[in-house]
Structures are given as C-alpha cells and as structure tokens.
Amino acid sequence: MASEERSENTVSSTIVNLAEEAQDFREGVKAPSPAFLSICKSLVAGGVAGGVSRTAVAPLERLKILLQVQNPHSIKYSGTVQGLKYIWRTEGFTGLFKGNGTNCARIVPNSAVKFFSYEEASKGILWLYRRQTGNEDAKLTPVLRLGAGACAGIIAMSATYPMDMVRGRLTVQAVDGVVRQLMTEFFSLYFYLQTDKSPTQYRGIFHALKTVFVEEGPRALYKGWLPSVIGVIPYVGLNFAVYESLKDWLIRSKPFGLNEDSELSVTTKLACGAAAGTVGQTVAYPLDVIRRRMQMVGWKDAASVVTGDGKSKAPLEYTGMIDAFRKTVRNEGFGALYKGLIPNSVKVVPSIAIAFVSYEVVKDILGVEMRISD
After folding, report:
1. CB–CB of 70/340 below 8 Å?
2. Between the CA of residue 168 and those of 48, 64, 171, 214, what are the distances in Å?
3. What is the phi/psi pair of residue 340, to 5°?
4. CA-CA distance, 152 to 135, in Å (whole number)?
5. Percentage of the chain with pLDDT > 90?
6. Of the segments 178-187, 199-208, 230-239, which one has the largest average pLDDT value?
7. Four-point Cα dihedral 56, 112, 125, 281, nearest 10
8. Which of 117-131, 159-173, 175-189, 278-292 is the most confident on average?
C-alpha cells in the first residue's frame, strides 16, 4: 500500500514537472531577474538625465570650449552674451548646438555609467564602513560620498574619454566663415556644421575617431587623460557629496519649512544640484582648460584654430600636464586657467541640477528604488 502511494506521488510530481517545463517552453526565455532589470533601469535613467541636461546647455558648452582655446592676440569671444551673439550672427541658430551630437553621444553613456557606478560604489563603501566600525546603522558621510563620487567619475571618464577627446576637436573646428553645410553622419538630432574655411574637415564623430587613430595613433585618443582624471576626482566627487549631503541636511533639519513630509520639492533639489555643480566645477576648472589644450596637440591644423588670426602659427607642443600648465601661465597669465569660467558657471547651474533631478524623476517613473542616499 505504501509503495503504491509513493508511486502515485512520484507520478504526480513528474506530471507537475512536465507541466512546468511545457509552460516554460511555451513562454520561451524566462523573464530577466529583478536585479538585472534594476540595473538596466538605472542605466537608462542616468543616460536620459545626461542627454537632457547637456542639450539644455549646449550653446554655453560650446562657447566655453571656444573661450578656452582662442588666441589671446585675436579675441573673438569676449564674454558670454557677446560670444553667443557672435556665434548666432556668423553661424546661425544651429551654430549654437554645433558639437552637441557628439557631446550627447559621449555624455549619455558617461552619465549612465557615472550614476550607476556611484550607487554601486556607495553600497560597497558603506558595507566596508559598517564592517570596520561595527555599526550596522551607520550612514554615508560627506567624505565617503566624495570617495564614491570620485570612483564613479574615474570609471565613467575612462570609459568614454575618446569620445570626449574628438568632441573637443569637433567643437573647436569651423569657427570662421559663414557658409555651412549640414553633416549627417551620426544619429543625433544636432550634427556638426562645417564651413568652407574649416582647417580640417572632421565630418563627424566616427570620421574624427578614425582620422585621429590613423594619423596620430591610438594613444592620441587619450591625450589629456591624466588631467581629466585628476580633475574628475574633485569635480564628480564634490557634485555627489554636496548634493546628497545638502539633501540629507534639509531633510533632517527641515529649515524654512521646505519639507514638511520629508520629501524635497523639485525646486529644492534643483537648488541642491546647482550648489553642488558650482562647487565642483570651480575647484576642477583649471584642469579642464589644460585637458582641452592637450587634446589639440598632434592635430596638424590646431594652430590655425587655437591661434586664430594671431601672429603665431607654431604647432602646439606640450610634453605633459605640468608643461601645459607652465606654458599656459607663462604665456597668458594665471587667468588663462579660468578662461570660459563664466559661461561654464552659468552652464553648470542648470546642467548639474537638471541631471540630478532628471535622474531621480526617471527612476521614479521606472519604479526603481532610490539607493544613493543610503
């Protein structure tokens, strides 16, 4: 009798297993795990945040780079308002967005990797901190957030640096002349507009990458990487540290009646992001100037662009980051390290703020649990 019951149970179990296998076969591949979906959604949120924030300030981003590399003996861009008017007058509305296609092609994956890396680095650092202190309720301190942000910045910068390098050249080229032709090599809505007086016709991001690789070698794609990495440590680190610390302080202290229900408004989050971006970019800005100038080294027509209509047409030569600092300060003064700071400051206020808020809004829409404040 017992053997018959066991036999019946075995048959029933087999039938159930076969039914489950048949259902799996009909449904095809099993649904992705929740963890995988969460990672994908975080990457999407970060990419959207980067694309939206950068497009919103694309004219100021281009003007900043042009101010950084223009010839001190032939000033074309003397300020933010004048520079934007000059670009509008000589190149039209589309000239304000020149380089934004490549910029977004770089910033979307950069932002996605940066936000995701920050979350993962924060979790890892917090785990180590709790293990070291023996306090399972410990929270991230501003210093720990700074470290997590620095790790995220280094990872994101290194992963997308070649795109940033050619973006600098594409944005700088074709600043003279009025005749323009729309180039449609890349997928972005905004493409690079070239003029018939352009010193070198980089026809788009892929052509620029190929040209630099063939003419200057693969190492050229990472020119200026060292000052970029050094600069990204305080820049991204301070961005995340200041933003998250300000939010935590506002939630805990509840000043000015800003958050009665422990939920900050979008306006308050924008203000936190603006403050974070201002602090970070002010500290790291000189390294950004040196990075741009080092990226021009090896480009045979760089002298025509950087020196403009000035007297010197000598090739740009820097032996390294320190040499670039020394020659820039010696030839143009200490103030040259902050060329373009004003339009960059105006750009950073909305850009960083929009990026942080967009990231959180998109994650909320996608139903991803916020973890960067843990």
Report:
1. no
2. 22, 11, 5, 18
3. 85, 5
4. 25
5. 16
6. 230-239
7. -30
8. 117-131
CB 353 within 8 A of CB 274: yes
Instruction: Considering only residues 131 and 179, tell me which one the structure prediction assigns the higher pLDDT.
Output: 131
DSSP strand pairing (180-182 vs 193-195) = antiparallel
Q: How many angstroms separate the CA atoms of 254 and 262, rounded?
A: 8
Two structure tokens written together for 145: 């957030």
The secondary element (H helix, E strand) that includes residue 253 is helix 225-253
Cβ–Cβ < 8 Å for 190, 101: yes
**Residue 286: which of 239, 238, 339 has the closest Cα?**
339
- Residue 6, judged by CB atoms within 10 A of its CB (0-12, 13-18, 19+), counts as exposed
| Residue 108, number of CB atoms within 10 A of its CB | 23
Decide: 56 and 354 in contact? Cβ < 8 Å: yes
Residues 313 and 306: their CA atoms lie apart, in Å, by 9
pLDDT, tens digit, 9 for 90 and up, residues 44-73: 999 999 988 888 888 888 887 787 777 666
**Cα–Cα distance measured from residue 98 to residue 91, given in angstroms and rounded to the nearest whole number:** 9
Tokens 């100021």 belong to which residue?
60
Are 302 and 316 within 8 A, CB to CB? yes
What is the amino acid identity at position 231? Answer: G
pLDDT tens digits along 340-366? 787 777 777 788 899 999 998 898 888
DSSP 80-114: HHHHHHHHHHHH-GGGGGTTHHHHHHHHHHHHHHH
